[in-house]
Amino acid sequence: MIMVMRMRKVVRILLVVLMNVMMMVVNVANSHDYGEALTKSLLFFEGQRSGRLPPSQRITWRKDSALLDGYDLHADLVGGYYDAGDNVKFHFPMAYTTTMLAWGVLEFGEFMGSDLQHAREAIRWATDYFLKATSIPGVVYAQVGDPYGDHNCWERPEDMDTPRTTYAVTENKPGSEVSAEIAAALAASSMVFYGFDRRYSQLLLRRASRVFLFADKFRGSYNDGLGPAVCPFYCSGNGYQDELIWAAAWLHKATKATYYWNYVTRNIHSVDSVFAEFGWDAKHAGISILLSKFVLDSSLFRPNADKFVCSVLPESPTKSVTYSPGGLLFKQGGSNMQHATALSFLLIVYSRYLHGHGNISIVHCDNFAVEPSRLIQVAKGQVDYILGNNPSGMSYMVGYGNKFPRYIHHRGSSLPSIDQHPEHINCDEGRSYFASNQPNPNLLIGAIVGGPDINDSYNDSRADFTHSEPTTYINAPVVGILAYFKSVMGKVEIG
């Protein structure tokens, strides 16, 4: 039995060596222009803007839209982002998107060059909006737009005539997950602007603290308070405890206040031990990685951060994700690229935290030792797959490469622009454009779609929204990823 176990260990080591060699060969042979991809990934957010567009707007086929948002509740909720290919402003995923954009700038902003300004602008478009959404103490606006009316129509955002209903969480109808995620977004963003606009940074941090206290004091899920307005669209399936801890972690990072650290350590055991979960609805792995930096040699967060790595690495004996034949990471549910980008972001961040710490930088998956550089390699395999290193030879980022999705599930992209068709296109008239066999007339540059299926097959179809719809929360983590690989482009050794 001992001999068999030793042989298995030797085989695993040989497999890793072989994979590392093959990956270095592939990286050299199929390198990408990560700087170009970074620029385009940020352009996508301009295409998702709601409200009155600025003179600097670069996606020019988009125009002003939703200029009366909030009017039904006598509030100003003009601005923010549409989450995907629809025209609803769902604040829960919008806030997560903002947090991830901010985290990307904090970790990798030094590598962004001229795109750093555009990244700040993308963040501020959201934070200006969230300041409006949290302007009344005891109230957090959680969504704008009736999702049923919106999803039953195929209209440009500039033409919307579906109900722009405003939904709020309050002391009597709490929504701790959406409120806490907004607090996290404001806290993370406050650090982005600290050395650039100190007054704005302080405003964001004060608001983050107030919204966090509201989320924590009046606990409850917005699933119950808002019901069918948010479910089945962006239901909170993991509860709100992870968002409360996530927000406290960001507030600790921004303020260094003992109160927030104590809050995290006091409540962390109330969060389920799931290690490969991270996204707009689950912050578990993100909490472990974010806080591991402060206590890298401690048993407080490091074990869960390591378990995250072991749950994701392809060769790990304890992995809980699957991989397509072409190498794309897969988890259950739609819009799979959100997992590939978010988990890859965490791998890179954790690798950088671990790098240079000697023996404690090694991750152990059972008896299997993993160097920090391996985390980078796995993440690079994912981003390269997205950009075209896959069995179909297709870039899943619109406008990058010669072959990319042309029929994305996106209203504004698929309908003629105001410049080309200034007349109003109503709900029913838009259906003919949805059913058209012609490619989308407007390129939503930088948009990353939901991606191929588990067999690496992609059906370029508007109707197949699970695979062809782009979202802000797919793109948000990739901004930081691309900035990092832009900085190491052309180097064989990565770490």
From TrEMBL:
It comes from the Eukaryota. This is Endoglucanase 8. It comes from Camellia lanceoleosa.
